[in-house]
Write a structure and sequence with these properties.
Distance between the termini: 125 Å
CATH superfamily of the largest domain: Glutaredoxin
Structural class: alpha+beta
CATH architecture of the largest domain: 3-Layer(aba) Sandwich
Largest sheet: 5 strands, mixed
Strand order of the largest sheet: 1-5-4-2-3
Number of strands: 5
Order of helices and strands: HHHEEHEHHHHHEEH
Length: 269
């Protein structure tokens, strides 16, 4: 009987050892296999409850958080994002001192400049909407094809009283109709406005026109203008078009924003 009991005990121990070898693939797994099933079940249930509670708290916090408010522009400033200095505009090193009751806006342009030609329709439309406290003017620059001839043409047309009504059409004649190949072709454009081309050519090379060109170029140098179109606001800011989609609208927004920024400087006048 004792021998039989010993044999049964040995067989039982062997069975237990074999079962342990099949399930305990690592020391960590062996340790986990010794955890009672009830304790493991309780741990899983506790983890799930904690996860559900955390999710509920997070959802409640999200629901309670107010929606992000839309930041309105400062009082008196145009709607939309503020232009970026060094990207949309630059501060002129030696700015002019503001005077009078109007904010001065000047476009430095060239009839031979293709970018000016593309911008002109947008600028013309914008000019018609200007408030009474903004004064806009053009200043020809030495940029684009035949710069000297086009600068002289601007001042000659101004002296002969046809600059305003011919301005937009000159861009079309140069860039669309291709009517100008040399400087000698420029006076012929103004025959469309009842001006004798020979008289116009003589006016282009007059002393008065030469003096105005010298003054304009000196002004552009002080403003730091190195290309066209360049918009100068109150002699203090210089803005140029940022290349990209809706670049013209972005430039006009920059102009409006800088005009609004300068407006208080003229309130005392």
């Amino acid at each position: 009987m004792h021998a039989r009991a010993m044999l049964k005990s040995t067989l039982l121990m062997s069975t237990l050892l074999l079962a342990t070898a099949c399930t305990a693939k690592s020391p960590e797994a062996a340790t986990m296999s010794s955890v009672p099933a009830a304790a493991a079940t309780a741990a899983v249930a506790s983890t799930a409850a904690t996860s559900v509670a955390s999710t509920a708290v997070a959802n409640a916090s999200t629901a309670a958080a107010p929606a992000a408010a839309v930041i309105a522009p400062p009082s008196g400033m145009p709607a939309g994002p503020a232009p970026v200095e060094g990207q949309d505009y630059y501060l002129i090193d030696t700015p002019d001192q503001p005077g009078g009751d109007k904010v001065q806006v000047v476009e430095v342009f060239g009839y031979g400049c293709s970018h000016c030609a593309q911008f002109q329709p947008f600028l013309s439309k914008w000019e018609k909407t200007l408030p009474s406290d903004v004064q806009f003017s053009y200043l020809p620059g030495p940029f684009g094809g035949l710069p000297d001839g086009f600068e002289r043409a601007f001042y000659a047309a101004q002296a002969m009283g046809v600059q305003e009504k011919s301005h937009d059409a000159i861009f079309k004649a140069v860039h669309v109709d291709k009517r100008v190949a040399t400087a000698d072709d420029i006076p012929k454009l103004y025959a469309d406005y009842g001006v004798d081309p020979k008289v116009f050519a003589s006016t282009m090379h007059s002393f008065a026109v030469s003096a105005k060109i010298a003054q304009a170029q000196d002004q552009e140098t002080r403003w730091g203008v190195d290309g066209t179109p360049t918009i100068v606001i109150d002699g203090k800011y210089r803005a140029m078009q940022v290349i990209g989609e809706k670049g013209e609208e972005r430039l006009l927004h920059t102009i409006d924003w800088l005009v609004a920024k300068q407006r208080p400087e003229h309130a005392q006048h």
